[in-house]
Amino acid sequence: MAKREWSFMIHDRSKGQYKEGVTTGSGWMYVCTAGAVAPPTIYSDERGSVSLTSTATGHGALVNKLALVFITNGYCRFWTDSSVTSLDVTYLMSTGESGFAKGVSSSRHMLSVDSDGGRPYTLWVPFAFETTGGSPIDTLLDLPAGLEIYDAGCYVHTADSTETVDFGFKNAVESGDEDGLLDGMLLTTAGPVAPYGTITDGSLIDYLAFTNGKLGALLATTITGSDVVSTVGGVSRLTYKTDGTIKSLVYTPSSSDTAYGFLTIKYEKMMG
């Protein structure tokens, strides 16, 4: 089958237009089928002789069957089957800038970031329930030091009423909190899942319940309420500053099943 070539240069808007604005940095790009999370088959050459596997190479890797391509010197290049005409991509540079683009065609070759501080970023991280649950999946996305994370979210593309997902940082080696960003997000319904709790109409009091999951301990202190006068419940929001040591983003499926979606973090680059 004929192959279609895709190539992208990452342009830093803060450094000027055209060639002088092309970053020389490294990073990672998740490649998704347009309008879906599951990826097309990605090849490293036009013959289709080498496709991504679960083992990382100089080109990329499959992460729980999701396609991750490496960005080198601000550039990445790969091939798909010619039947693939549109992609959704989400990308993170090693210096912390991120972006995403929906419905891109193979004729588009420039994607943008902005390295100036003081602006918000949203990183979209795809997840898939394709392996045994209960074990953290390393996304291979590493956050540098000096990012202040102030929120996280979950968007379900393919729902699964029996499953939940956690989101955080790798514990092995790094001693990160594996559900420190999101804890027990319920995947019952397609669409956004809010981690802020739901005000529940009780017979004695109205109280705050976390039936859909909640922000993790790095981003909030939470008390689950109940229909008792002394237990209203509440949330006290926190922010988390990355240190460059605890850096590897991981998610943990509750089991092996069919759910797909995106996990998000909102953050800014800090001066100090």
Describe the fold and architecture:
- With 272 residues, the chain is an all-beta fold.
- It folds into two domains: 1-106; 120-272.
- Helices cover 0% and strands 47% of the residues.
- It is built from no helices and 22 strands.
- The strands form six sheets. The chain has a five-stranded antiparallel beta sheet with strand order 3-4-2-6-7, with no helix packed on it.
- The protein is globular.
* Helix content class: under 10%
What's the overall geometry? globular
Gap between N and C termini, in Å? 52 Å
The overall pLDDT average reads 88
- Which class do the helix and strand fractions yield? mainly beta
Secondary-structure element pattern, one letter each:
EEEEEEEEEEEEEEEEEEEEEE
**How many distinct helices?**
0
- The poorly predicted ranges are none
Provide the β-strand percentage band. over 45%
Spatial strand order of the main sheet: 3-4-2-6-7
- Main sheet attributes: strand count, strand direction, barrel closure: 5 strands, antiparallel
Radius of gyration: 20 Å
Number of strands: 22
Oligomer: single chain
- How many structural units, i.e. domains? 2
Give a brief rundown of this model.
This protein is an all-beta fold. 0% of the residues lie in helices and 47% in strands. The protein contains no helices and 22 strands.
Question: What attributes characterize this protein structure?
Answer:
272 residues; mainly beta; 2 domains; 0% helix; globular
